[in-house]
Amino acid sequence: MNYSNLDRRSFLKLSSVIALAGVAPPIFAADRKIFTVYGAPALPSLTIAVATMQGQLAKQADVALKIWRNPDQLRAGVASGEFKVMMSPNNVGVNLRNQGQKIGMVNILTNGITKLVSKQMLDAPEKLVGKKVIMPFKNDMPDITFQSLLKQRGIDESKVNITYTAAPAEAVSLFLTKDFDVAFLPEPLASACILRGKKMGVEVVRSFDFLHAWAETFGGKPVIPQAGIIADVDFYKANEAEFALFHQDLQNALNWVKANPQSAAEIGTNYFPAPAPAIAEAIPHANLTVTKGSELKEELFKFYDMLMRYNPKLLGGKLPDEGFFLC
After folding, report:
1. Residue 8, burial from CB neighbour count under 10 angstroms (0-12, 13-18, 19+)
2. Which residue in 40, 127, 235, 257 could disulfide with 84, CB within 3.0 to 4.6 Å?
């Protein structure tokens, strides 16, 4: 039954029946825990969204997903104490902890979600020289990985003209309407950019696979454990059973998303500025996972070591301590 569509008479009748039966539905329970996850404006939040709708935790707690607009809002929410559970780029949690915030890592939800699209095919990072690139979030995850790849390959950064925007959707709009050659975008915005380009008569193609270029450049697997859930340490310790249940919910949700991309995409339209076809198209490209942070320590520390070489400020000046990994 859709409670939002009940008229007053039907609602009162339902309430009377409930009272006579001596039971209260979950919406009236006063002792349910609040479990709000603040998600990023990127495709891994789709896994969270499905988990909040279909998972076991939602049967015993008030589980909700809210999307933060940009990394500055994320940091402010953590600093104020409002955000207890949040998806973030994997360096942000380390940085917050090194700044004195009681934050730890719960899991990783994508092994590389930022994709390179362009108006002409570029088959190698060296082809970026002389090109105008647009991307969101200066000094955050897209920029970190992009700049690190250039430096490691010996590409002169001054010969790659980079413009930054405050949000991914703005980067898509400017890329399609201005003279930019390349956009570096998180899914589902990369897929949305390709589809919107077709409607506008602008050819947009996927250029070289950034993860494979990353593995070729730094060695190892084509994996960047890019983002996942971090949490307030005290909140985590007070709700470990709920987090364990939510982890299983996320794994089940991911399996459902992969098996039902069209239905999942419809859910995603409630959270992302992208149409359902773009979200469905993005799912196979988003390298979605649900992996505990402790199980990815090797890959995470390889990434952190790279950041310490190129820009230690992004981690707050030091590697995370062992206590950073909550599970």
Report:
1. exposed
2. 235
